[in-house]
């Protein structure tokens, strides 16, 4: 948390702001999306979610968050984003960069957070992932992927997002696998969890 005591939250590819209703009161929200046309929808969504403080709309892909300072975010949220970015590894590297770091305070070297906030920044995610390789479900994803990618704004059904998260050098990674909601859809299981800087 910053000096104001409010959580600085960055939502990646925020779209129309569908997640805003779930954020705690007082969050200072920065929205990042490569589509500049979502800003008009965000204005409406922010008006409906007055418990939040809208700080900024950044038009940029997740791979290039240069408009955001190092260590400036307490929380980063990603919902069904990593399937459609060009480089999940670069997005996760940028997430690590903008998340609040652990800092040392005092002469005793004890670890403490900057500005009295949480120990480290946290990345919360909910993403769909590839079915297990060699399964019929994975074969179905492979067959459907070209059309799905074209109609689904670049969504890759066979992306192994779990592996990217495991390689992202977080100090702590927690995730759970959720089975597919509908077996007949090529969008397979989901993973939900958090990665601590």
Offer a concise description of the structure.
With 197 residues, the protein is α/β, with parallel strands linked by helices. It contains 4 helices and 9 strands, in the order ββαββαβββααββ.
Describe this structure in words.
This protein is an alpha/beta fold and 197 residues long. The chain contains four helices and nine strands. Helices cover 22% and strands 25% of the residues. The strands form two sheets. The protein has a seven-stranded mixed β-sheet. Strands 5-6 form a two-stranded antiparallel ribbon. It is globular. The model is unreliable at 104-117 (pLDDT under 50).
Strand segment tally: 9
Q: Number of DSSP helices?
A: 4
Largest sheet: 7 strands, mixed
- The shape, in one word, is globular
Contiguous low-pLDDT stretches (5 residues minimum) are: 104-117
Helix and strand content put the structural class at alpha/beta
Order of helices and strands: EEHEEHEEEHHEE
Going across the major beta sheet, what is the strand order? 3-2-1-4-7-9-8
Instruction: Using the CA coordinates, give the radius of gyration.
Output: 18 Å
Distance between the termini: 15 Å
Residue fraction in strands: 25-35%
Helix content: 10-25%
Name the average pLDDT: 88
